[in-house]
Specification:
- There is one protein chain.
- By secondary structure, this protein is of the alpha/beta class.
- It folds into two domains: 248 residues, Aminopeptidase (3-Layer(aba) Sandwich); 71 residues, Beta Barrel (OB fold (Dihydrolipoamide Acetyltransferase, E2P)).
- Helix content is 23%, strand content 32%.
- Helix 2 packs across helix 7 and helix 5 packs across helix 7.
- The longest helix is centred in the C-terminal third of the chain and has 20 residues.
- The C terminus is likely disordered.
- Bound molecules: zinc ion.
- Zinc ion binds next to loops.
Length: 362
Amino acid sequence: MTAEEFARPLLICGKSFPVDKQRTVHLPVGHLITHKMVELTVHVRRGNKPGPRLLVTAAIHGDEINGVEVIRRLLMNKMPELAGDLILIPIVNLPAFLARSRYLPDRRDLNRLFPGSATGSFGARLAKLITKDIAQSCTHGIDLHTGAVNRPNLPQIRFCPGVPGIEEMAIAFGVPVMIHSESPPGSFREIFSALGKPQLMFEGGEAEIMEPASVSLALQGIISVMEHLQMLPPSNSTTPRSKPVLCRKTSWERAPRGGLLLPVMQLGEIVKRGMLLGEVGDPFSKKRTPIRATREGVIIGRTRNAVIDEGDGIFHIGDINESSSMQNNIDAAEAELDHSLNHQVFDDSKDVSMEDYSYSSN
Ligand SMILES: [Zn+2]
């Protein structure tokens, strides 16, 4: 973003956000049956010098909680030397969040409704608002997700290859695994890809659960990306960042039969072809059936269900060619995580006061 572009007030739905100010705006989306307005809460923090405009979003899927906490913690950091703009949306899909559901009340997936429509369904209108009034003016994005219920994911970055600068941004995020993943039609990522702007998708932990390790890694990852984009000065941390391993393909190892799942392997472990991943116990006999790896890779996701059917996905494997260095990277990431948990990233006592900017009252 040029100095001239940066110096202009940022406009979101007709509201003006001047340079070197931070404000919170509540954008009207549509009415509930109860006549209450559903609002999209957006925190806008403008720096005092030119730089990128980074959008960080969470809870597009309403039951994915870790990202909401990540953004809450980002809000606690004053960032006095911020260059560019940081736009934070802690809960994109508020109706789904309130219902503790992945989906919108009409059972649609908001992350398949982009770019949306101003005259479409509630979800389509929400998607349109975010696309037109916020995402289009941003230069970079990070969208925070988790695995589904009972399907935890190893902290990982997914990105669409080919967008300029995206791979460097993914490496800067610094989680052990990054995955080439095309944007599904109608996804938020597809908007950024179509605009030729880099957006990372972070996955870590599982739905409905607050997982401190994933929250901490995501928080550190966003700060690292902001340093990489020169939105923040380099940190003084002497802890080396682990270089992620790239997976170009992922696939599920599936249950050979139904029964009781007795897993042997855990998230982040390296598997070789033929290695025992777990067993399926027959609830009516002493019989056990082994589940063996059909390929080499790293376990990036798994089921936590105790009772499984034949064909259920048990372990999600990311294909890798560099397994010898992979375990070192995961070990380094774990050491880094221990460090971050023992040395709080931010001082929670210094809360940031955001000027509240109620859209509907103006
Ligand atoms: Zn999600």
